[in-house]
Amino acid sequence: MNIPEHAAKALLENAGIRVPAGTVADSPQGTARAAARLGPVMVKAQVPVGGRGKSGGVRLARSPAEAHAVAGDLLGSRIDRHRVTGVLVEERVRVAGELYAAVLNHPAGPARRVVLSERGGVDIEDTARTDPGSIRTLDIDPRTGLRPEAARQLAAQTGLDRAAPAVADVLVRMDRLHRDSDAQLLEVNPLAITDAGDVVALDCKLVIDGAAAVRQPSLAAFAAPEPLTELERAARELGLQFVELDGEVGVLANGAGLTMTTMDVIRHLGGRPANFLEIGGDAYTKARPALEIVLAQRGLRSLVVNFCGAFARTDVMVGGLTVAWAELQPDVPAFFTIDGTGAAAARRMLRERLGLEPYPTMDEAIAAAISAAAQDPG
Ligand code: GDP
Ligand code: MN
Questions:
Q1: Is 20 in the pocket of ligand 1 (CB under 6 A)?
Q2: Is residue 18 within 6 Å of ligand 1 at its C-beta?
Q3: What domain range is 355 assigned to?
Q4: Is the CB of 121 inside a 6 Å radius of any atom of ligand 1?
Q5: CB atoms < 10 A from the CB of 287, how many?
Q6: DSSP labels for 120-147?
Q7: Are 180 and 305 in the same domain?
Q8: Which atom of ligand 1 sits closest to the CA of residue 51?
Q9: Which of 179, 196, 222 is the C-terminal boundary of a domain?
Q10: Residue 283, pLDDT score
Q11: What is the whole-number distance in angstroms between the Cα of residue 289 and the centre of ligand 2?
């Protein structure tokens, strides 16, 4: 569950972390009124994506008239696939330095991890590529939480002199907030050091574990539902888990894990997945609508079908899929890979009914699908 920036900042403030004074507005008039009260302001589109600064979604307005104009521009516009229905209007902060600070779930265990970098205001993924040495992490014993001495040490390693104690204090408070809100990620980027030497959270991304919704009803109420594409809505109605992406290689696989692995390998081998679609145990009964949805995607150039059977039988999955295939007669190049329970019968069925030869391994099928996607369709 993604918590919107303005709501996340209220939580930071409650936790004793400074945030710029501000308010949410949904009209140019409201934005101008807020600017009249606050002075020069930053007007920030409230959409649940990062990189708004780069895409023009975070703008400075020096006067109420400018704030009015900027809000008129932003409200109703689209950033990514999100329509801007509200802006956060905040006092402009004079920034001397920008840090990156985050508390996240440890990728490999039950602990939390604190991340601090002197390179704030840019994506941490970019920093990881350009200057990994500037990223410092500390794993926390969840029984004690982040201890102040440990936080001070981390801040000192980051080369913060005068601001180190205040930054350390923010980290300790972030760690507590992360724990108390059942968060997966609490990211403050940038955490600004102001001209006056104060430490202020200029942006906040807070993601709450969806499974904690029952424990966090007040946060769950804030969580912005992801807007769905038309195909995603159709899939949802059929009970299919489908996410549309912007790549060229379609994915049809059984089970969420295998589907994600397939997407990862497509990426790893230099391609871009067009979707996530898990057809799991319903492959047999939902093969036709599932196939229809995958084929309807814009930008689709090839298709990987990856079935792996354990309890579920791949011959049953392929049985269902070949019927749908014969009905729909797709002309997209398709690359099958089938393993596990029932694979021998499934492969035979694929050859006999569709005249398609499955690939011996997933990597080979995916590599072939990527090169087919790269062919000029002529
Ligand atoms: P994001 O691009 O979606 O992550 O949006 P941010 O809230 O991080 O804003 C983008 C950038 O705008 C930040 O990295 C800052 O450099 C800048 N910014 C945001 N608020 C302020 C502010 O009050 N004062 C100044 N000087 N810069 C700001
Ligand atoms: Mn940011």
A1: yes
A2: no
A3: 230-374
A4: yes
A5: 23
A6: -SS-HHHHHHH-GGGEEEEEE-TTT-S-
A7: no
A8: 2
A9: 222
A10: 65
A11: 39
**Higher-confidence position of 279 and 263:** 263
Q: What percent of the chain has pLDDT over 90?
A: 83
* Domains in the chain, number: 3
Q: Is residue 2 a part of any domain in this protein?
A: no
Average pLDDT for residues 47-66, to the nearest whole number?
94
Shared domain for 212 and 133, answered yes or no, is yes
Q: Are 337 and 364 in contact (CB under 8 A)?
A: yes
CATH number where 200 lies? 3.30.470.20
* Domain match, 171 and 234 both: no
Check whether residue 302 and residue 268 sit in a common domain.
Answer: yes
Helical segments of the chain, H only: 5-14, 28-38, 64-74, 124-130, 148-157, 164-180, 217-220, 230-237, 256-268, 283-295, 314-328, 343-349, 362-374
Residue to probe by mutation, ligand 1, list 58, 74, 89, 193, most atoms within 8 Å of CB: 58
Nearest residue to 44 (alpha-carbon basis) of 31, 62, 29: 31
- Which residue from 59, 202, 204 has its CB within 8 A of the most atoms of ligand 1, so it is best to mutate? 202
The finding on whether 93 has its CB within 6 A of some atom of ligand 1 is: yes
For residue 92 and ligand 1, the question of a CB distance below 6 A is answered with yes
Catalytically annotated residues: 100, 187
Query: Looking at the structure, do residues 81 and 101 belong to the same domain, yes or no?
Result: no
Mind listing the pLDDT tens digit for each residue in 233-255?
999 898 888 999 999 999 999 98
Ligand nearest the Cα atom of residue 5: 1
